[in-house]
Queue: 4 jobs
Job 1
Amino acid sequence: MISEPPRPAGAWRVVGLLWVVGCLNYLDRVMITTMRGSLKEAIPMTEAQFGLLTTAFLIVYALLSPFAGYLADRFTRSSVISASLIAWSLFTWMTAHVTTYEQLLATRLLMGVSEACFLPAALALVADYHRGASRSLATGIVLGGVMVGSALGGVGGWIAERWHWSHAFTLFGVVGVGFAFVLMAWLRDPPRLEAGLPASVGSPSRVGVAEVARSLLGNGNFLLAFVFWGLLGVAAWMVIGWMPTYLQEHFGLSQSRAGLIATSYVNIASLIGLVVGGAWADRWSRTNRRACLHVTALGLFASVPSILLVAGTGSLPLAIVGLVAYGLTIAFASTEMMPILCLILAPRHLATGFGVLNFFACAVGGATTYAGGALRDAQIDVSRLFQAGALGMAACAGLLFLIRPRSTAA
């Protein structure tokens, strides 16, 4: 058995608080996509301009992620999270009061800046509190809040359809600001020496940007994680980005039914997978420091036949079985990414490292979606894209076996 450091008081309370913040983060982000008709009726815009609202958000979000992670390492993580929640909630509330497209685009850009600060700080804070056999499960629960928030984005469209599009932004903006006061009262960075933790944990880091960059880029294990996350992004976006199109064409489904099957089954299964993968890795970590690496690799290996089943079957029920299996196992990678970083990075660099990976994932996602469209224009069958994605996942699993933990993991 591997000895565990003491868990600071309030560790699970932090997880609960961050679950709510993660839910609000993605809810505020995605609900604009569910009220297209109502929004276009109130503020005239082209289809391209409507699409730009999400694209611009993602570009800013991606570019700011490494810097946002550095802020969380440079200052206390809890203060960065609280400030981020207040900022994006205010911008959400401001969105309800815009009258022109230019104003709407400006609020989306500001949302991208403020929301970028949440996830690197939140997952690093969870890692600070949960330093033993509870880290993966705690991370999975917080990411579950993110998934629930994304799924609840449709509430915005429902409110817009029944009342007015601005009401949703007003409501959730006020809720977010109100919950920020709860955070300021209850969310704290963990105690340090009192709990037997290293002095660097929970205390601001005074290192400069150049030093952090040298530390990350000079770390061969982090570069492997960087390649792993990028390749996984290519494979995962290739699969999920074109799944609705494949189901519609291959099984003769309507657009709405294909979209529902492609998203609902995968998301529900992934929500379960976050918890299952986290609990499994935590249990295994009591006897094996590399448990988070092994669980991720096993999940990816299991996702390969799942996707090949979807790509090769002529039966819709079997395709759904493959989608459920894929959603369940691919979620292991999300749950374990921060625990993997804890094996290879110093605690004072965790948020920055995750921010860099988050930036890369967003960039790869956008490029892969475009590349998939180009391949479709070249008359490449969608099933071939899934086969390429399955091959990429197998390669990702292989990369994990090359990562070597530090002698003193975070």
Job 2
Amino acid sequence: MKLAALLLAAAVTLIPTSGPVVSVAYAASLVAVMEGSVARTFDSRTGLRFAGEAKGSRVLANLIRAGLRDPDIFISADPALFKGLVRSYTVFG
């Protein structure tokens, strides 16, 4: 849990946000951890507000490609979905 919070905090320093909210799109399989301890830890340690959206990884990737979502951070269960979507990504977990 701490690792995920640290990764989010590190990503925020690299990704400009439009205010005190960080939007995070993540695989639905991560709902329990992302909306629980990660969100609470992120909020308390950064002073920013965690705004999460959970859906299937492919659905989220398609929404991003279509311009219907523009999250600050996208966490997918399938690294292959990042191809053509971002310049670089990190596999963890």
Job 3
Amino acid sequence: MTDANPVTTPVTLPNDRERLVDLLSRLSNAHGLSGYEGSIREIVRTELEGHVDELFEDRLGNLVAVRCGDDFRVMLASHMDEIGLMVRFVEEKGFLRFAPIGGWYPPMLAGQRVWVHAGNGPVLGVLGTKPPHVMGEEEKKSPLKIEEMFIDVGARSADEVRDLGIAPGTPVTIDRQFCRLANDRVSGKAFDNRAGVALLIEVMRRVSSPSTIYGVFTCQEEVGLKGAKTSSFALDPDCAIATDVTIPGDHPGVQLKDAPIEMGKGPVVSIADANGRGLLAHPAMLDWMRETAAAHGIPVQFEVGSGGTTDASAIHLSREGVPSTVLSTPARYIHSPVEVIDLADLEAGIRLLVEALKGRPRIQPRRAGGSA
């Protein structure tokens, strides 16, 4: 997929906080629909070359960074892809009908500006709908449906659309730029899961571990955890941690009893997600995170989630099973173009993993040479 914002060389920044902000900004502003993660892979590759022992792309599109140690294998997974759209049909007058890729709440899409990643280069478009001024009263009360929306790129005919290099299957992503808010909070698109990607990049740059660490930047998580399934089977790790985002219950419209997580109080370790239908974390993995946080004074929260799942749900069922958990950054308004995180939570998550990986969980290794 052609990126509307080409990868740029990282600049030298005065401290770790500003370096992290620059990295997260570039990751958020870049475009990587599920199955079209190439722009994100290139940022990761640029950041990690020279900092890891091996860096390779597998056949599905996962990017794997390796820090070599003994026979005990730890897999850290962070998905690169973002939700978006895909052109499904070009109307005679040049309007584009589309299919959602990943989980969208339709009202979030209305009135957005998008990049259509055409074969001849990216094309700006806007998401149009029928104006409320010409709707009947009953029509106004009906929930907005994705099939009622269309993309307007300014073309006057289907022939003009074809000349732009747009056809069925062309990827589409939201046009939204990273910005800083008050109190070291930031907003942008695709923090689900570019926040996790930034966290994993920083961990792989800093980690010193007796174990062999596989940092896996996975593809196609938003459409079925696909990259996690194939990479965990290939790598056959002894344990795994997925890095992602999770929903806090600290803003209007949601209550702490429904999402008992707060921004600014540290990263979140998953005990279970989807009411246990997804991941049930291995107790040794929870102890490892809890004990590390206590030993180093790192704030941490624990969560029993009722919503969606992460790469860990696929990884922990690989082969005969992989003890796993998730380390998440609280993120408001996920699956929208204006997600919000607190930089302190992201930094605490980086520190927690770096410190944890100096040791390992009390898990019996599968291979000779590793020690629990």
Job 4
Amino acid sequence: MDGLLAEVTRSGVVESAHRGYLVMLNSDGSVFKSIGDIDTKIFPRSTVKSFQASAMVRAGLKLEPRLLALAASSHSGSAKHLEAIREILTLAGLDESALQCAFDRPLGDAERRAWGDAQPTRIAMNCSGKHAAMLLTCVINKWPIENYLDPNHPLQLAIKSEIENLAGEMITLTSADGCGAPLFLMTLIGLARAIRAITISTDEAHQSVMDASRTFPEMVAGKERLTTQMMQEVPGLYMKDGAEAVEVCTLQDGRTFVFKVSDGSLRPFRTLVHASLLEFGISTAFEPEKVMGGSEVIGTIRATIS
């Protein structure tokens, strides 16, 4: 059901291959290109954070753009990120003990090295910005905070409804993401339609989240992260990655691409993002991934989507 997305070559020989699913939409929503069965259902993981944040804004969440971008983030865990999460919690009259996301160390490479042997914490977990915003949304609405991750909690039902409306399909299975929040199974094409819909929407809740994310891409991810780098380089681009190799990218005119790498590897991400943007006629600063033989470059990772 999947198709070939990228190949790893060594001395002209294909050593490894990454298969998966990809769909590209034109600005009018029609399918420009696809690989694999785009009706395949996937767990979109953190690529849905803009939808979750939009549901919270619709429910009364009010944050300055810098903090709203963090509410839709998979942050690196820098000091700047952690300080901003505490700002959100303070607005709710809470501290980090109220967070119910998983314990973890920072996601960013540099941030994790700086963390060293210190114990994992909830606030360092890359989804803690979203969780802090969820808590604030609950406080604003006088919803209980003790069970804010329950799939039947008013907040999570609002998020589910937001995703269904954007994707144009019903959620048939609810699981749990790595952070503990409800995770909704959906089709690849549904995810693409949803991210395109939120991009071209005139709904204030949608536009506030998307504008905040584009304005503060370092809050959505972090330094040296592909998501931040690409949003800084390509005007109007919104991009969000998810665990197990899911990616969404959308331009302000509605052109969109979404892919899922079947083996869950992030290795071909940079190559696939660059190649997909080229399909839309957008060239970016890109140095092909290097496959080394000792100190010599003897291969690369190449996309196979053209």
